[in-house]
Design a protein that fits this description.
single chain; about 300 residues; mainly alpha; globular
């Protein structure tokens, strides 16, 4: 973009600290993303699993109180009846199951949300040669990366971290037992860390893919390919070879494996033991760390500071 006016213009406004320079990029990017009707609708639908989580925690709180409202439901299901006989002893297991179920549904929404928000974050700057405009201001590459990551992090946090926190508060309130804080606080920490892992992993990977092409559509297609083709390939190989390493090929399965470890969920005790062939969570954690490291390396090569731009 040519500069026609090189005269002096007095600054009118409130100065802020240098530590918040990245927030300017994030604020603008989130505003643009939320103008997309499909993004807003998806974020709205992504709260349905949160509503289910809240309903389950409220129902369990009523069961702990021996409420007559859910007595017919408890009597109708034998497993639930066994859990209700000793609610305090089964409280932690129930909360872990409910949060694991919430994240199982939410992961799909987050993958779609990332492909709606993220493909153009870096690719459009490369296509329109906007990087010199960014770095001609007091903005470091770290601020640029953090600001772009924040554009993805804000919507993801709004559908994963915020609902998990709200559901926990409501669940504690309906339990009417002060001991629930000590019993389930580890679940809250695991859930918040789970959400943070998704934000950092998916955010850095999408930014790296966005920096590889000037076409946002190509970036979106690449993301969908990594997500869906990887999941189908992992599922097919697991069914044929029945080896623990097969799920490592699925990006979302690696996230879920790490997430279950953070929540303290035993995968063989959940979902009827259907996850027999699953790698140790440390393997999945190494895969996610390797992808993050590769993403940071790609970004460092593709996005250069002003003195290195050609």
């Amino acid at each position: 973009m040519p500069i026609f006016d090189q005269g002096y213009q007095h600054w009118k406004g409130t100065l802020s600290g240098h530590g918040w320079r990245w927030w300017t990029v994030t604020r603008r990017g989130v505003g643009v993303a939320l103008k997309n009707r499909w993004t807003r609708l998806l974020m709205l639908f992504a709260w349905f699993p949160a509503a289910l989580l809240i309903a389950l925690l409220v129902a369990w709180g009523l069961i702990e109180q021996r409420s007559n409202l859910l007595a017919p439901l408890v009597q109708a299901f034998e497993p639930l009846r066994k859990f209700a006989q000793t609610p305090r002893a089964n409280r932690l297991a129930v909360w872990r199951f409910c949060y694991d179920l919430f994240f199982q549904f939410e992961i799909t929404f987050t993958m779609i949300l990332v492909v709606l928000v993220g493909p153009g974050l870096v690719s459009q700057d490369l296509r329109f040669n906007a990087l010199p405009l960014y770095f001609s201001r007091p903005l470091r590459r770290f601020d640029y990366f953090a600001g772009k990551l924040g554009v993805i992090a804000v919507p993801l946090a709004a559908v994963m971290i915020v609902p998990a926190l709200i559901a926990y508060i409501i669940g504690v309130v309906f339990s009417l037992d002060p001991t629930v804080l000590a019993d389930t606080f580890v679940v809250l920490l695991g859930a918040l860390t789970y959400g943070l892992v998704v934000v950092l992993s998916a955010g850095t990977l999408m930014l790296a893919l966005s920096s590889l092409s000037r076409s946002s559509r190509a970036v979106g297609g690449l993301w969908v390919g990594i997500w869906l083709i990887g999941s189908m390939l992992a599922g097919g190989l697991t069914a044929m070879l029945k080896q623990d390493w097969c799920p490592l090929l699925s990006y979302t399965e690696n996230i879920k494996t790490v997430g279950r470890a953070l929540l303290g969920v035993d995968p063989e005790s959940q979902l009827g033991g259907s996850l027999v062939h699953q790698p140790p969570w440390t393997w999945s954690a190494l895969v996610l760390l390797a992808l993050m490291g590769l993403s940071v390396w790609i970004l460092s090569l593709r996005v250069k500071s002003l003195d290195r731009l050609k």
